[in-house]
Amino acid sequence: MLVVNWKSKEFLLLVLFLQFIFYATVFFDIPVARQVLGFCYFTFLPGFVFLKLLKYDELDGVETILLSVGLSVAFLMVAGLFINDFFFLFGILQPLSLMPLMIVLNSLILICGVLIYLRSENVKIWNSEPFEKSPFVLLLLGLPILSIVGAMYVNIHGNNLLLLFMIISISVLFIVGVLSKKLLPSKLYPFAVLMIAIAVLNHSSLISNYIVPFGSDVPREYFLFRTVESNAHWSPTLPSSWSILYGRLDTMLSITILPTLYAKILNIHPTWVFKMLYPLIFSLVPLGLYQIWQTYVGKKYAFISAFLFMSLDTFYLEILGLNRQMIAELFFVLLLLVIMNKKMKPVNKMMSFMIFSFALVTSHYALAEIFLFFISFVLVLLIVLKRPGKNITVPMVVFFFTVMFTWYIYICGSATFDSFLEFGVNVYGQLGDFFNPASRGQIVMRGLGLVESPSILNTISRMFAYLTQAFIVFGFVGLFTKRTSIRIEKEYFIFGLTAMTLLAMLILVPGLAESLNMTRFYHILLFFLAPFCVVGAEFIVKLLSKREREFAVSTLLLIVLVPYFLFQTGFVFEVTGADSYSIPLSGYRMNALRLYGEYGYIDAYSAYGAQWLPKNVDFEDSELYADARALGYVLTIYGMIYGGSSLSNVTIVADTGVVYLSTLNVVHGVIASEQFAWNFSELSHVFDGLNTVYSNGGSEVYTNRP
């Protein structure tokens, strides 16, 4: 065990030195150094100083990193909220400007450092096993580099060979890591999980130099972020004409105050806050899950479980379009880590729980509700079974509920609870279709094998997905019947039971899967169910054989998980030339309506046209027309335009009308609504009498005015 202690004076000097270096990079605005050092400084140091101030000395190295980042991000959100409200009350109309942020944030960090110094005690800097020297360290470090360079190569040359090589490399490293403890020692598992996570996230997030929505909510998130950033002030009250969805999103500090702080302090373009910084923070989620799981199933099986979690394409595709969820999932995992941590002192556990609870509630309303459901269900069941645990207590549940209720009622103006009631009414209204399988939605139907597969490869891909789910079910049965060598504590088993119950409800209750979004919800349920897949493989092997059980389990899991990963990433579909949903690997040959319409891919032509509009058109005296996909994606993100009329075959442009056309319309000749798509020629009558006022070869603007 490697333990590093510093004197309190040395620690204070370190804090002062880091602050001096960062102030220098800001004062001289040194490119790259300001962004890299600033991100590391504010994403790690505040939380680390807080841990040392409260003497969280019982943590190991991985836990120290996770909690330091989590506390730092929570610190930025809370401190930013304080600066926003307190300074505004004293007449500073732009409190979220560089100088107020720098002075207050650094002062708070320095005060904590001084308090540590005044305590005159040694500071335990590091408490962990020494880092293992292995050639695999360099190979693992190469994965993110391959990912970044590969994505850039796709953007510039349209060549995906480096990304294909990266995916194969991950597969090979995973196989070797599972089969050989000498080549990849268990001490390197956390590092391997982190490197794989960064690689698979970057290979998607860095595609295109612009925001790629992946069909999710990032356009609205980015719109609200830019609004706060340009005003240098956040207000939870939006114009009454804006939709309730914008009202819910605006009260999430994870996409309003937090990215504004990063953009202002680091002097980084808002696009790259979401495309680079957020995925880096999100990459810690699999690491946190590994840290939780290794306590119950061991390091090797936790590594395999983390690989399963990262293999699901929701992790590195759909969630990249949900920036508030990326931040919220970090706090979700940290809350689980705190709850299940046996080494943490009760005072430190409750303090961490309170901080991360507030951070989760102000990051994502749905995940906060899901977390409250989980801990409440587990607590009630433990009480009913008369087997109370020490990990989840009544004060914890009451505190979380109070924070959530207070924030969502008094800050959100009840918009979140109104949407929750609306969701309940929607599901209740579909209960009459209980015996109609189609009422569960296409994703559930496909998961149950009730939708015809479009190709043989898709059928094989589904087969491997079904096997992972079957292993999870076998794992649950094996744990319930105690027929496995793995024993999981009652709290975690009940977490798993709750997850299995919710999964069954998503399948059985009409409308529930579509209302909650099945893919995202299954991704969350894997927080609890992924280890069950490994346990299920062991349970199956135990039923069939009694010799060389560990090797047989590892082999069985590799036979299933490696192909599963290759199919999920789109690798198999790309190398065979089959229809693929992977933008990084197959975007160059993807159907234009899917790429630009469904996923919302944005190129330079569309972005420049969208940026031209607000600079040259007065929308107070004009009415905007565009296809539904442009309104929802590029015009919201880069035009900063709210609303507009969707083009259709019955559109009549008003006398003050302005029509915007994106790459999908101009280059590919398709105009899309939410449900239909027309060839450009079918809507040519809409443009009769209109004058072209802007064109860049891929984006055009028309107007009725001469």
Q: What is the secondary structure topology, with strand pairs?
A:
Layout: E1 2-6, H1 8-27, H2 33-53, H3 61-89, H4 98-119, E2 123-128, H5 135-157, H6 161-179, H7 189-205, H8 218-231, H9 244-250, H10 257-266, H11 270-282, H12 284-297, H13 299-311, H14 313-316, H15 323-340, H16 346-361, H17 365-384, H18 394-411, H19 415-429, H20 442-447, H21 456-481, H22 490-508, H23 512-516, H24 518-544, H25 549-568, H26 571-576, H27 583-586, H28 592-598, H29 604-616, E3 623-626, H30 628-632, H31 634-637, E4 645-646, E5 657-661, H32 663-666, E6 670-672, E7 677-679, E8 691-695, E9 700-703
Parallel strand pairs: 3-4, 3-5
Antiparallel strand pairs: 1-2, 5-9, 6-7, 8-9
Structural class: mainly alpha
* Span of the ends, CA to CA: 77 Å
Poorly predicted regions are: none
Question: What is the tally of beta strands?
Answer: 9
Output the number of helix runs.
32
Give the strand content.
5-15%
Describe this structure in words.
The chain has a five-stranded mixed beta sheet. A two-stranded antiparallel sheet has the order 1-2. Helix 8 (218-231) crosses helix 10 (257-266). The protein contains 32 helices and nine strands. A hairpin with a 4-residue loop joins strand 6 (670-672) and strand 7. The N and C termini lie far apart (77 Å). The protein is mainly alpha-helical and 706 residues long.
